[in-house]
Amino acid sequence: MKMKVAILQTKVYADKIKNLEQVKSIMERDDVSSCDLVALPEMWNCPYQTENFPIYAEKEDSDYVRELGALAKKHHVYFQAGSIPEVDDAGRVYNTAYTWDREGNLIGKHRKVHLFDIYAHGQQVFKESDTLTAGDTFEVFDTEFGKMAVNICFDIRFPESSRIPTLKGARIILNPGAFNMTTGPAHWELGFRQRAIENQMYMIGAAPSRDKEAGYIAWGHSIIADPWGNVVMQLDEKEGVGIAELDLDEIDRIRGKLPLLSARRTDLYRVEEI
Questions:
Q1: Which residues lie below 8 Å from residue 267, measured CB to CB, with a gap of 6+?
Q2: Do 35 and 67 touch, CB atoms closer than 8 A?
């Protein structure tokens, strides 16, 4: 079975309506709308600064979010719409990734579990927890291509974030992420290849393009890694669209040749589902 994927590596503007219109325009392209799945970056509609998250936050039933579902239906694609700030009825703000099916039905929702709070020897301080609340589930959703799951950015650094969905049947994990100019060159590609090898699945990473004038400068380099750890596709730092056809039968071939999941010593250790 083959699946064609498009990753939209977009520039993030201060105007969230402009960001939405940009996505709409790109999805009108024949090479994008003909794909089976379209993926967006982390916080593609909001400059990546903690103080912005409550300002840009949308409720799940807002017109803005409904327009994303309408795009999936219009173009008849699975649409993993990266992540955007979400606010619930209690006023809590989350970094949330929504996924819609070809008919515009919401089939997946992941709130970032591991918040990016770092203190890099005084050189870089960033605390998502200043304004965001952490999610607490790792869910999978069904598609015609098998089960999939979503992590968000920092989640990829924790093996459990990928292993729990894998044990629930996920064969593809999408990870919208915005690694920076320190973590990007060091760990972006390595992280996706590592998780792909460990779980013998496809890992899809959608990143925003690099904007040197932004308060937070993203690494870019949207990527797809296959179950053997090969890089199927990787963009550079500029705005662009990456398209690749994935051979999903490769997952079973690799798992058959090197049965890592069945070789686990669950008599000695196990991953607890959350």
A1: none
A2: no
- Rounded to two decimals, the pTM is 0.96
Let me know if 35 is a catalytic residue: no
Beta-ladder partners of 39: 7, 80
Q: Is 148 helix (H, G, I), strand (E, B) or coil?
A: strand
**Set 58, 112, 128, 139: catalytic member:** 112
Which residue among 42, 86, 128, 189 is the active-site one?
A: 42
Residue 245 designated active-site: no
Q: Express each pLDDT in 44-90 by its tens digit.
A: 999 999 999 999 999 999 999 999 999 999 999 999 999 999 999 99
Active site residue 213: no
Burial class (CB in 10 A: 0-12, 13-18, 19+), 132: buried
- Region 2-257: CATH code: 3.60.110.10
**Distance between CA atoms of residues 112 and 219, nearest Å:** 19
Q: What is the pLDDT of residue 123?
A: 60
Strand partners, 149: 140, 173
Overall residue count recorded for the chain in this entry: 274
pLDDT of res. 122: 58
pLDDT, tens digit (0-9, with 9 covering 90-100), for 262-271: 999 999 998 9
Which has the closest alpha carbon to 219: 259, 253, 189, 254? 189
- State which H helix or E strand residue 27 sits in: helix 16-27
- Three-class secondary structure of residue 134 per DSSP: coil
C-alpha 36: how far from chain center: 16
pLDDT for position 118 = 77
